[in-house]
Automatic annotation (TrEMBL):
Residues 1-144 form the UspA domain. Pfam families: Usp. This is Universal stress protein. It comes from the Bacteria.
């Protein structure tokens, strides 16, 4: 039924609550999982503020390296379970990036957990989920991570 499952993640345990469902669906359908991490532009400068570009570039590079390592770990874990997994790192507004990657990869399901917190922008996956739900033209699997006892300790 599903061939390509797009799984947006933000690195939180709450967002990872979707993994059990993705694993089951991928196995049942012999589907590939695409783990997506979106990096937003974190800087919102006031009118007279000045940014030190060297430090900004170093911080940004470190963020991208952490995101890449996280995605690589997910890919290895799912491949270790016999599931075809790939990763994507995208940049920009989260909802727009998710929809763009879904279209670019031919994803026929977007699977995500609500209420995961992520990124420097502290974007709630609840609002991301709502944005994806309103605009996506493929099926969406949403689960409430707050109802999963395995992530209860991740509540903020």
């Amino acid at each position: 039924m599903y061939q390509t499952i797009l799984v947006p993640v933000d690195g939180s345990k709450r967002a990872e609550a979707i993994f059990t469902y993705v694993e089951k669906l991928a196995r049942m359908n012999d589907a590939r999982a695409i783990f997506l991490r979106v990096e937003e532009e974190p800087i919102m400068l006031g009118r007279d503020e000045i940014i030190e570009t060297t430090k900004y570039r170093e911080d940004y590079k470190a963020r991208v390296e952490r995101a890449t390592a996280y995605l690589d770990d997910l890919k290895a874990a799912f491949r270790g379970k016999g599931i075809h997994a790939v990763t994507r790192l995208a940049y920009g507004p989260v909802v727009k990036a998710i929809l763009s990657v879904a279209a670019d990869t031919g994803a026929d399901l977007i699977a995500l957990a609500t209420h995961g917190l992520g990124g420097l922008a502290r974007v709630s996956y609840g609002s991301v989920a709502a944005g994806v739900l309103q605009a996506a033209d493929v099926p969406i699997l949403l689960i409430r991570s707050g109802s999963d006892p395995a992530v209860a300790s991740d509540r903020g």
